[in-house]
Amino acid sequence: MNNIGIISQSPTLTTGFGITTKKIADFLHAKGYQVSCFGIDQIGETFERNNFMYKIWTVGGTDVHKTFLDYLKFTKPSSLFINFDIVSIGRWYSIIKASGFSGKLYAYLILDGTPFLLADLSFLKEFAKIIVPTKHVQNYLESLGLRNVYYAPHGVDPHFYPIGNKKEIRRKLNLHKKKLVGCFGRNTERKQQSKVLQAINVLVNEMNMKDYLFYFHCNPFDTLNSWNLNLIARKLKIEKYICFPQDLSNQLSGVPLSDIKKSINKIEDLNLVERIGICDLCVNIPFSGGFELLNLEIQACGVPLISTNDNGNIAEIVGKGGILLNSEETQIWRTGADIYFISAKLLAETISLLISDRKAKSTLSNAGRKNAAKYNWEILRKTLNSL
Asked: Disulfide: which of 4, 203, 318, 371 matches 322 by Cβ 3.0-4.6 Å?
């Protein structure tokens, strides 16, 4: 039996990498592989092992390299599959080579933006197969002379669909008189949640629109790599126009996707699909993105979407099912990639115009659902079948 090890964030997590790791592991296990996951960022036994049909090494986030040598020693994989961004894949390639491992290498590669000018990518030629989730990245890598690149997009979980009791839930939460905007995405530099706060400032303090509430589905201050969103809101005098969930202290673990509670008294009683579904519209404006599965999940729920026009991955995935805002300024990220910063004023104006236009919201809702319906995991499953 082929023994394959997967290096990525743990399949127990609800991050993009966690979700795709679980899909990869599930598909390979079903194909007959003996699968073991090197589960980065999973700390301790805080999950149900019975829900997984393969081994998971709970690595945590520190001393990963030493733990990896132990992992190789005890699991003895014949091949390794890395599911990460290009920078992390480069690091893991060096670690794997230094370990003496000589089996086949595969990767599901995320490239958050192009071009990539941080390092030479010729090492990717050593991989038996490079799988990428966007045609934009496939075309870019092939333009560099790589011939082992395969396109297989992420899919949308079927639990994401329009909720039927939106008005009832909003009334129970006393939100029926508010214009509710959802901001779903981690509090990180790339996600640009602070720019949304600046847009709220424009709406409230410059445009004098006071009937808004912005729900941020993130931790207001997670690490030193995030903003302290509460302090920024206080500085801008917009605290009463924003709210955060109390059950998301760990942004990696997430909240239940589709569990239903008998009584609803607060937003924490809602599952993720309901939290998206009750919104009038959602905003997700990262300055770059490798796929942004979140955008498809929002579209699948029938909620109008505003996102970033990056002329690349994000624009490809959103398609015609959302509003793509052109950047006020384009800069160069540390990887050499172009990154796109949206104007707070443009974002505020777009929110204001869209949220009051029923016809436009209905059109976007239908277009978004149609776009999201095109994305499933079948291409990835078939691609993995031919490893």
From this structure: 318
Strands 329-332 and 323-325 come out as unpaired
In this prediction, residues 284-301 reach a mean pLDDT of 97
Mind listing the pLDDT tens digit for each residue in 125-173? 999 999 999 999 999 999 999 999 999 999 999 999 999 999 999 999 9
What own/partner pairs with CB < 8 Å and gap ≥ 24 does 339-345 have? 339/113, 339/287, 339/288, 340/287, 340/288, 340/308, 340/309, 340/310, 341/192, 341/195, 341/287, 342/192, 342/195, 342/285, 342/308, 344/195, 344/198, 344/199, 344/201, 344/202, 345/199, 345/202
**Max Cα distance, the chain (Å):** 66
- Which residue type does 34 have? Q
Give the count of alpha carbons within 13 A of 346, CB side only: 15
The packing angle between helices 86-99 and 64-75, to 10°, is 60
Q: Are 24 and 4 in contact (CB under 8 A)?
A: no
Distance CA 238, CA 230 (A): 9
Tokens encoding 371: 């776009």
d(CA 77, CA 34): 9
Confidence of residue 34 (pLDDT cuts 50, 70, 90): very high
Distance between CA 302 and CA 296 in Å, rounded?
10
Orientation of helix 358-372 relative to helix 344-355, angle to 10°: 100
Residue 359 buriedness (CB in 10 A; 0-12 / 13-18 / 19+): exposed
H-helix or E-strand spanning residue 22: helix 16-31
Q: What is the rounded CA–CA span in Å between residue 340 and residue 246?
A: 31
**Average pLDDT across the chain, whole number:** 93
Dihedrals φ, ψ of 382, to 5°?
-65, -35
Cβ atoms of residues 260 and 282 within 8 Å: no
